Amino acid sequence: MALAGLNVIEFAGLAPGPFAGLILADNGASVTRIDRPFAASSDVLCRGKRSIVVDSKVPTGRKLLEDLICSADVLIDPFRPGVMEKLGLGPELFLGDAVRKGLNKRLIYARVVGFPRTGPHKDMAGHDINYLALSGVLAMMPGTSEKPTFPLNIVADFAGGGAMCALGILLALVERARTGHGQVINVDMVSGTRYVSSFPLIQSYLGTGMLGGPRGTNLLDGGAPFYTVYTCKDGGWMSVGCLEPQFFKSFINIFNKSLPEDFSPLHGWKPDASSQFQTDEWPRLAEYLKQGFLTQPRDFWADVYHGTDACTVPVLTPAEAGKQTSHIPARHPQVSAPNQTYPDSKDVALEPGMHTEEILFSSLISSLTSIKMASQQLKPFTREEVAKHNTPDDLWIIIDTKVYNISRFKAMHPGGLSVLLDDQIAGQDATEAFFSLHRYEVLEKPQYQRLVVGIIEGEKPAIHGRIAGELSKVPYAEPTWLTAGYHSPYYTENHRQFQKAIRKFFDEVVYYDSIDREADGKRPSQSVIDQMAALNMHAMRMGPGKHLQGRILMNGLVAPEQFDYFHELIITQEFARSSLRGYGDGLLGGKVIGLPPVLNFGSEELKAKVVPEVLAGKKFICLAISEAQAGSDVMGLQTTAVKSEDGKEWIINGSKKWITNGTFADYFTVGCKTEDGFTVILVERGPGVETKQIKTSYSTTAGTAYITFDDVRVPVGNTLGEEGGGIFVMLSNFNHERWVMCCASARSQRSIIEECLKWTTQRKVFGKPLHSQAVIRAKLAAMMSRAESIQSWLENITYQMCNMSYKQQAGKLAGPIALLKSYSTSCGQDTARDAVQVFGGRGITQSGMGKFIEHYHRTIPFDSLLGGAEDVLADLGVRQALRGMPKDARL
Ligand code: HEM
């Protein structure tokens, strides 16, 4: 759907705001309604929305709102002027102003009010009828000569308010795609009503016959007998709207023919086609039609006019209209949505707060404690009151304005008791001391959140943890295209939306599983694999191509034919950012390298069997090439495949080593020595196949295996590519595999830079931040330069890939990709070494502040081996270049 991936925050209101939100939700946006505690909602425009209850009056609730808005694309503010400002959530906070930087400069801040925001009525309460009245449009409405009637609350609330607001949001999205900046959209229903009424207003100013005369005498306000409603014999009504002469002709001819033979209410006078614009005859014509319609029931007239050009149809009740239109096929979601007859009460009611937990969870502000804190007032204390709790048995501290009672916890504190009893800590503000020794996530753990007993009066927490989907504000922590104020020629608005959705998904679904599996050494949870499959992420990780055809990618955020290598780069980089490294390989890294030979070289029959179940995350595949005796030297492999006597099967014998995902794979893409040379064959797990876990220096979550094949029989139909043509199968695979590794390597180096910048800022040495030391800054400079150069080179190569055929890529990019891979992994090792120096002992400690550095440093050598050893690849790149040397080159 057009707006899939768009994140909208809608403050609860009635009519225009919810309608704008509904239009966005009907078109795929994720709309979250913010409800107030204990406030019932009578809104019925809730289709497809979620609700969270937040008390904006307590500091934690306000902070929660701020966080939610920070990660939103659109905010719908339905309040009177000044309400959001009073909450401290005005547009300047997010979009910035002369003094503030702005927390979310891409935000579209849509505000709907009744009376114009700056006019004399701005502070008055009002409703649709009042806005319609002030717009000048109510005075033009049909009615009696004494007073106009009004069209329910449709024109001001929904057309001039809600729909105009949605239109403004869409226009702002278009502009944001061009400029990268959000903006404030101001809608007032008086001006909106005038805008949607442009046609009648202009006609009226021009004094045309359409609407120029007094009410009830014009073409469109019931004055013309051929543009009005008539009552029928059974009390039903018919609408007549035959303005043009040819339509009137058709209408009057059918009408006259359908009347009883003796019908003659006006002493024999009978209208014909020429009567239409004889205005002095209009009273007679009106009477004639009125009497005529009364001769038959509504459905008679409906049948008579059905299928004609008389512009005459029955007036249906809402229920009849629902039935009548529900058969219309849904060409587009927004066309079908209004036709629904609302059979399900969930479409018209949204219980306030029914998604509170879900939303908090998905925002990683999810513990029950946070919910409580957001909806309940924490007890306020002064700093003087806290200072009195400074003895071992009554010990409180302040961290980021929150008051912790650590009297019982102190004995269990992993950092010991004495540090907590220090005069500078006990009863004092320990924020700085705490953050120089702990990661924020310590405070997010439920066992420590329970220690919070209050908050410092009048102060607001300033530090927050990881927020799902958020971009880091730390310099160099994001590539330039994701850094505010920078530009890139490579990424479109679709790539940006895609990145946002992917990051949110990985932050919410993958990050915690990665930490847990790294701790217990088990392979990634099947629930994560299934959630990825539901978004077709396993298919997208295979890159652009035919395998995406017919699939709905990321809930329709990107069309299969639109998906390019930059989308794939985004997935790989976001993946590298939010998962630990062994886990990243465990999460079907084997498929990324093992499935392409099947996709590109397998028979149709084999593909039909294997590809769907692998891309659905139901079966697993790995690439089994390297052996104890041969690695980069694939021609030296010793695993053999010989044909059975009847020539129908391969019989495979040998062993494979360091095979990622091998322990749990169902299929193995195996490199074998055959009579004709090197052949790649797909082997299904079965008799004769054995896999054993290898304990490597990185992680058991990757399922790295030692595999033995003993007389394993495989149909010859499982041959991938030509017999003896294995090297071509592998060569075409290598490019993509190595490029994927470069994407991941570039991104994980940034995460290390982010860790180092944070640490060197908060860690104090000789009373100053660690980065005040020139040697530390030199290391940071080297890390930043490496990460930037890899990303720039990578994006250039990715751009080439987007513009080359697979064959051209194999010819022109094998060398550059090999060089980039070799360069990236060598930079990664330099960065790991530098980071350990920056973190000192913590850089080799598996818990606490340096745990990610320890992990990176321990696992980085793997990068330089996987997909071809560093030196071998560098040499390959040079040899490729030499092959292209002009024959007549001279110095
Ligand atoms: C609510 C308050 C606190 C909690 C829940 C807490 C929790 C922890 C935890 C879980 C660790 C283990 C390392 C880690 O995972 O980061 C730790 C270590 C430590 N904590 Fe605390 N702590 C608190 C307050 C403090 C304060 C106020 C100090 C004062 C200086 C302190 C000093 C230390 C030290 C020195 C270590 C050892 C750090 C290292 O070896 O790198 N802690 N604490």
Automatic annotation (TrEMBL):
Pfam families the record matches: Acyl-CoA_dh_1, Acyl-CoA_dh_M, Acyl-CoA_dh_N, CoA_transf_3, Cyt-b5
Nucleotide-binding as UniProt keyword: no
UniProt-listed Gene3D superfamilies: Acyl-CoA dehydrogenase/oxidase, N-terminal domain, Butyryl-CoA Dehydrogenase, subunit A, domain 2, Butyryl-CoA Dehydrogenase, subunit A, domain 3, Crotonobetainyl-coa:carnitine coa-transferase, domain 1, Cytochrome b5-like heme/steroid binding domain, formyl-coa transferase, domain 3
Designated name of the protein: Cytochrome b5 heme-binding domain-containing protein
Organism: Agrocybe chaxingu
Cofactor(s) for this UniProt protein: FAD
Keyword list, A-Z: FAD, Flavoprotein, Heme, Iron, Metal-binding
InterPro entries (alphabetical): Acyl-CoA_DH_CS (IPR006089), Acyl-CoA_Oxase/DH_mid-dom (IPR006091), Acyl-CoA_Oxase/DH_mid-dom_sf (IPR046373), AcylCo_DH-like_C (IPR036250), AcylCo_DH/oxidase_C (IPR009075), AcylCoA_DH/ox_N (IPR013786), AcylCoA_DH/ox_N_sf (IPR037069), AcylCoA_DH/oxidase_NM_dom_sf (IPR009100)
UniProt lineage: Eukaryota, Fungi, Dikarya, Basidiomycota, Agaricomycotina
One term of GO molecular function: metal ion binding
Alphabetized SUPFAM superfamilies for the sequence: Acyl-CoA dehydrogenase C-terminal domain-like, Acyl-CoA dehydrogenase NM domain-like, CoA-transferase family III (CaiB/BaiF), Cytochrome b5-like heme/steroid binding domain
Record family assignment: Belongs to the acyl-CoA dehydrogenase family. Belongs to the CoA-transferase III family.
Residues annotated as domain Cytochrome b5 heme-binding: 378-457
Database matches in PANTHER family: ALPHA-METHYLACYL-COA RACEMASE (PTHR48228:SF5), SUCCINYL-COA--D-CITRAMALATE COA-TRANSFERASE (PTHR48228)
